[in-house]
């Protein structure tokens, strides 16, 4: 191939560091910033985030689509992807570092009972609470893939009793693996801090519902860093109201930005952050993207191609 053309179409993303990185790492490419596509039939590759259908219009010679994020639900759910074109998701060390930090921070928050101390502080009450050893604290991670697996290993290294739930059984040192529908009850029964790192698929939509919360021990805490649609909001609020859930950290929401009048914003037991637990870092992700592009150009197997039928 002579000059290859890459279309950069990432909504809501500052394109400057990406374009600078791509120019440095991929000098032989003609990188075009959407909507300045030029002749769409010239585009070989697209790098996208939350694209509308327009982005793919006329890209009759598109060879591959790369997603800026790890989750491809927005692309698959809205049927914007042209049929038969391989889709590659982001599996990048920078993303894993961010998620690892955020999950660790929130697990420690609940493990060290900062949600309880927040209540005590409001009443100016000086009351040291019982403290558990990490080995006596069960942290359950739903989704033991690239990100969930990374977080699990970190928590194991700190001595936590870590359990993981995935579609297929996993072997991760120090992690008890549970899988499938059949393993869900046992996984949940003792999980005191539940982390959701599942992809959003038809099977996992609404999985964080009243039935699931009821299977957790009384006073469990939840950290949802996957997708808002994993949670049934009314069930989550009810579980907080009843005290079955003691604290919840939410990074992702059905509607983003979270509407200003949403009860989550002001709920005393909810921590809200604006979908920032892990941001794709251009510094590392450009290298990841370019390495994969070069594999494709050289006729080698491209890594992290999405199984469209499975949804992740
Ligand atoms: P992976 O594909 O590497 O891992 C997904 C894991 O979920 C796998 O272990 C998989 O099981 C498991 N899984 C999928 N479907 C089911 C199911 N029906 N039942 C049980 N387990 C299931 O994904 P990543 O770790 O890279 O990313 C996970 C998600 O995190 C993304 O899809 C995205 O939504 C979210 N994310 C959020 C970010 C944020 O800023 N909030 C940033 C980045 C990602 P198996 O291994 O058996 O296939
Ligand atoms: C992702 C995200 O999927 O940032 O990468 O949500």
Describe this structure in words.
The protein is an alpha/beta fold and 312 residues long. Helix content is 33%, strand content 18%. The protein is built from ten helices and twelve strands. The protein has helices at residues 15-25, 73-77, 93-111, 114-122, 146-157, 180-189, 210-215, 233-242, 263-266, 282-297, and strands at 4-10, 29-33, 45-49, 64-67, 87-88, 138-142, 161-166, 175-179, 193-196, 220-224, 245-250, 270-272. The chain has a seven-stranded parallel β-sheet. Strands 2-1-3-4-5 form a five-stranded parallel β-sheet, with helices on one face. Strand 10, helix 8 and strand 11 form a beta-alpha-beta unit. Helix 1 (15-25) crosses helix 10. The protein is elongated, with a radius of gyration of 21 Å. The model has no long low-confidence stretch (mean pLDDT 96). The site of NADPH dihydro-nicotinamide-adenine-dinucleotide phosphate has 32 residues, from helix 3, helix 5 and strand 7.
Keywords:
elongated, 5-stranded parallel beta sheet, alpha/beta, binds NADPH dihydro-nicotinamide-adenine-dinucleotide phosphate, 18% strand, 10 helices, 312 residues, binds oxalic acid
Please summarize what this structure is.
The protein is of the alpha/beta class and 312 residues long. The protein has helices at 15-25, 73-77, 93-111, 114-122, 146-157, 180-189, 210-215, 233-242, 263-266, 282-297; strands spanning 4-10, 29-33, 45-49, 64-67, 87-88, 138-142, 161-166, 175-179, 193-196, 220-224, 245-250, 270-272. Helix 1 links the parallel strand 1 (4-10) and strand 2 (29-33).
